[in-house]
Specification:
The chain is an alpha+beta fold. The protein has ten helices and 37 strands. The chain has four domains: about 100 residues, Immunoglobulin-like (Sandwich), CATH 2.60.40; about 300 residues, 4-Layer Sandwich (Purple Acid Phosphatase, chain A, domain 2), CATH 3.60.21.70; about 180 residues, no CATH class; about 25 residues. Helix 3 runs parallel beside helix 5 and helix 4 crosses helix 7.
């Protein structure tokens, strides 16, 4: 007996002894901390991705990003490694990170061959995949005091991102020398106050004249090519529709139900001194047509559209002040387009003028006949001395330095979004304010699986599709939220069934291609389907019965792979729930794409009853989906199975009979 106890203790202690011996080696192999980056910042934020840009202090380091939802970097996501080389990449490395979870706080650091950077750890919160409330900071006009307290004040508010409308730094070089622009970025991003802000707050940035290289700069500026090149090297920007290389930097992105459009009003701009005729443009014709297309695409899809203009819009001073006043003909053209196409929910944010100012639209009447104006906010000067420029503004004009704007979006996914424009000073005191309730018809189609599935409502990250040009069946409607229903029939249009795109056909059987459905597709897209065959209130991997099947416009037949046990024997009925989703693009992770809101397409949920001879759409309540005698038989079979299992268990645990 003693020998057995000691033997047992030995088997228990042996792993502990081995672990204790290994601890020194493990501690030596753990990542050590040391500063080796010059700066790090992030941008191009979405619900599932971000871009991180860093500059290394020296050549030769093979660096990767370590990203985690935990501050201790447990369960990390690693980027591919890159090598810093002054001659090849100026030691500036760009890391697009994808596959992230929505609305999640992430922490990141850089790691070089087992050593982690201790100087610039960063963090960001991804955007939500559904309509949500958020705020962002906005400002312009930095001088050379990069450590102004205003950057700390902005960071203390915890904005989801920081939108900079020009003059992020002063770099009046006016020569085509990329190294001079690089040096300006290095100085800016190496300053403690701004580095701290950008380490914890993703940036969205479009330039103005001070950081483009010349006061009142335009397309003739000698440094245009260098400015464009270095912007693309250093800035974690969204995709540029114009491409890469010597191209303008206009871009667009979406946050919840808000569409952002950023225009480049320097590198395509005609000189201020040109006659204000049909040829004079601040945007250039290509960018302007892109801008118009963005407005048309957004006006019926996004309740709020925010246009970022780096120069003031409201100016009737009679003086060419490097504002839209010098481009009055084009300003009227744009205003006429907005009014003529009923582009509603538009808010304009402007920079360049060193003041806070807000107008509710009454002084913005540049369309023919006066038109209907839209709200405008000038976002204040971060560091440069204050000035009054343009106007008037209905809510006032406050010149000064150490100013910034905060835009708050309150959006619960319903028929009203509240946008608040707030102008603040370095002490975080509000100087100007305008609250804008924006009424909008619901623009998202949601599902109607029972609440027990926990994947129907907004709060459950339920499936939804922003109304677009593809859908299933003869119609699609929108709701304020998901419509949970035991019969999966809560989603309708004026009491008419909206879910008419999928019909079961033929006789079903278990196995591959066991089920057949007829699909009415409106537009080309990709069909996915899930079936709760085991009745556990969810969709397991084996229950993903259609995967990214490409459909064209019209009626098509699609087969489903049915898990074993789906089709009952005899005349019994099996009632189960299905979810069909029609996507404009293939789902990235199709087996798990049964929830979340995406652009375009439709979700249709069903409750079907299946027998050996037919499949029918069911509208029964759940307690009547199976006959009473069926439940009784199932209970009897379960009891018998449990009894047999119990007897076998007792038999295994009973001592063997004596020999």
């Amino acid at each position: 007996m003693v020998r057995r106890v000691l033997s047992g203790l030995g088997s228990l202690l042996l792993p502990l002894v081995v672990l204790a011996a290994a601890l020194p080696a493990l501690s030596q192999s753990a990542p050590q901390d040391a500063p080796f980056t010059e700066f790090t910042w992030s941008g191009a934020l979405s619900s599932s991705s971000v871009t991180i840009v860093t500059r290394l202090l020296a050549d030769g380091c093979n660096v990767r990003v370590v990203l985690s939802a935990s501050p201790d970097y447990s369960n990390p996501i690693y980027s591919p490694s890159q090598i810093a080389n002054t001659a090849i990449n100026n030691r500036v490395l760009r890391y697009p990170m994808s596959g992230l979870q929505p609305d999640t706080l992430y922490y990141y650091t850089l790691e070089c061959q087992g050593v982690r950077d201790s100087a610039h750890p960063g963090q960001f919160r991804t955007l939500s995949a559904v309509p949500f409330s958020f705020s962002f900071a906005v400002g312009c006009c930095v001088d050379n005091d990069f450590n102004n307290q205003v950057f700390t004040t902005i960071g203390s508010r915890g904005p989801r991102f920081f939108l900079v409308l020009g003059d992020m730094y002063r770099n009046l070089v006016n020569v085509n020398n990329p190294d001079l622009f690089r040096s300006a970025y290095n100085n800016l991003l190496g300053s403690p106050a701004q580095a701290a802000l950008y380490n914890h707050t993703p940036v969205v940035y479009v330039w103005d004249d001070g950081d483009y290289g010349v006061i009142a700069g335009d397309r003739t500026a000698p440094g245009r090519q260098a400015a464009r090149q270095v912007y693309q090297e250093y800035v974690p920007h969204y995709g540029l529709p114009a491409g890469s290389g010597d191209v303008p930097i206009y871009q667009a992105f979406t946050v919840g139900r808000v569409r952002f459009i950023l225009t480049d009003l320097r590198s395509e701009r005609d000189p201020n001194s040109d006659p204000d005729d049909d040829l004079k443009s601040m945007m250039g014709e290509t960018q302007k047509q892109w801008f118009f297309q963005q407005l048309l695409a957004a006006k019926d899809r996004y309740p709020v559209i925010i246009w970022a203009s780096s120069v003031p819009w409201i100016d009737d001073s009679g003086v060419t002040n490097d504002t839209w006043y010098g481009f009055r003909r084009e300003r009227t053209e744009i205003a006429n387009f907005i009014a003529g196409n009923d582009v509603h929910g538009l808010i304009l944010l402007t920079g360049h003028a060193r003041m806070l100012a807000i107008d509710d639209g009454r002084n913005n009447r540049y369309a023919g006949g006066g038109g209907v104006g839209f709200p405008v906010m000038n976002v204040g000067s971060l560091e440069q001395p204050g000035e009054l420029l343009g106007g008037p503004y209905s809510e006032g004009m406050v010149p000064g330095s150490g100013q910034f704007g905060v835009v708050s979006i309150i959006d619960s996914g319903g028929s009203q979004i509240t946008v608040t424009l707030s102008g603040r000073n370095v002490a975080n005191q509000e100087l100007v304010r305008l609250e804008l309730p924006i009424l909008t018809a619901p623009a998202v189609d949601y599902g109607d699986l029972p609440d027990s599935f926990q994947m129907t409502t907004l709060a459950q990250n339920g499936a939804g599709h922003v109304l677009g040009n593809i859908y299933l069946g003869s119609r699609i409607d929108a709701e304020d939220d998901g419509q949970p229903s035991e019969t999966a029939s809560g989603d309708d249009l004026l009491r008419q069934q909206d879910e008419d795109g999928i019909q079961p056909t033929s006789v079903w059987r278990d196995g591959a291609d066991g089920g057949v459905v007829e699909v009415v597709a409106h537009g080309r897209g990709y069909l996915n389907a899930w079936m709760d065959a085991n009745h556990n209130g969810g969709f397991d991997a084996a229950e993903h019965v259609i995967s990214n099947t490409l459909l064209n416009n019209g009626v098509q037949t699609v087969t489903l792979d049915l898990p074993i046990g789906t089709v009952p024997g005899g005349s019994e009925a099996n009632a189960f729930y299905l979810r069909f989703r029609y996507f404009a693009q293939p789902a990235a992770n199709p087996a798990a794409a049964y929830d979340g809101v995406v652009d375009n397409g439709e979700v249709e949920d069903y409750r079907w009853a299946i027998t050996r001879s037919a499949v029918t759409v069911s509208s029964w309540q759940s307690h009547s989906s199976f006959p009473w005698w069926g439940w009784a038989l199932a209970a009897l079979l379960l009891a018998s199975t449990l009894a047999v299992s119990w007897r076998r268990l007792i038999a295994r645990q009973s001592p063997p009979p004596p020999p």
